[in-house]
Amino acid sequence: MKQGTARTLRAFAIELGIYALLVTGYFFLVLHLLGGWLYGLEVHHRYTYAGVAILLIIGQAVVLESVTTLLLRLIRGRSE
Amino acid sequence: MFFPISGAHISPIYLVIVGFLVGILGGFFGVGGSFIAGPALRLVGLDWNFAVGTDLAHIVGKSVVAAKRHRALGNVDLRLGLIMAIGTISGAEAGAQLIQMLKRAGNVNLIVSIVAIVVYLSISAFMLWESQKTLRSQKRRSSKEKVKGAIAKRDKSAFGPTTRAIQRLKIWPMIALPTSGVKAISLWMILLVAFVGGVFGGFLGGGAGYIRMPSMVYVLGIPTHLAVGTDLFEIIISASYGTLTHAIKGNVDILIALVMHTGAAIGAQIGAISTQYFAGPKIRLAFVPLPLIGAAIVIYTLFTGHKL
Fold first, then answer.
1. Which pTM value belongs to this model?
2. Which of A52, A54, A55 has the most B C-beta neighbours within 10 Å, making it the best mutation to test the interface with B?
3. pLDDT digits over A16-61, tens only?
4. Which residues of B touch A50 (CB under 8 A)?
5. Is the complex ipTM higher than 0.90?
6. What does B200-264 look like in DSSP terms, one character per residue?
7. CA-CA distance, B52 to B50, in Å (whole number)?
8. Which residues in chain A are contacts of B247 at CB distance < 8 A?
9. What residue ranges do the domains of chain B occupy?
10. Which residue among B62, B250, B254 places its CB closest to the CB of A38?
């Protein structure tokens, strides 16, 4: 039982580390590139901005959920 | 990090941490967590309107992640969630109108604050009483027949007889919720619960998950795990609607929401998975402090005049 918990925690820590790296890359690449475009959209085309905002947050949610699930599967699979 | 839409300078690490904490709460309790995220955004200097709108956008993303995880665990009743979304959205509009009416009549802050404090304290007191009573009776009854495995979705509640009496009310049309194990319940009762939650959301701000989740358990008789998952699914729809209307009014900084959501995505999964290891009454007992935090924020606002 304790061994199982330790394995889960280790897998989780590895997952967090990889996730943090991915997210840092994401901040500097994607958000930096999107910032100016989204700002322009918010100022000049408010309705389009609203639609894009919803799509972006849902899209990010789906992608991040898949990434974390995949990471968990890979790490757990390897540690077992 | 500079966010050009709201013109704010906020550390992305701070946003990720706030998102992570709110994500855990959301995944575990099925709430949006706006009573924490809103003040946390205000704390770093974001304008009130941006804090509300941006928080709603981040709630959409977090709820997608948590609801997907809950759905994989069999904790989402899609039919119930869709019906509730209709009631919540109309309730939120009614709540917003109510605020406008009270504003015209004067004394809006005092009335809203007193209502909020009474409601929050009542929910906390009731859930504390009910969950402890249920846990005590379960302990007496099943010292021998312990629930096997971590998942204990069969939900016992000390409020069960009242819930069953509500379910017996034959107000046409009656519908079945097989996923939630409810054989028949009036559609109006579901809409009413969602509408009341929506009114409180529009009236007090935020998603009002701390009212809707307990109502689903006690009034509709939905098992706690399913109430959490279904509420999250319902929040996706109602918070998306809220995000759209706020974005059109210029109250959403989607870049802040995206950064917050990177933390929330992982927090929501941890919260959702954790529900597997707790029985319904224990989740309800752990829920008790949440409305108290809401009440504390309202009391602070009432006495200091500062909106957190």
1. 0.85
2. A54
3. 787 888 888 877 777 778 888 999 999 999 999 999 999 999 999 9
4. 243-244, 247-248, 252
5. no
6. HHHHHSS--HHHHHHHHHHTS---HHHHHHHHHHHHHHHHHHHHHHHHHTT---HHHHHHHHHHH
7. 5
8. 46, 49-50, 53-54
9. 2-139+148-304
10. B254
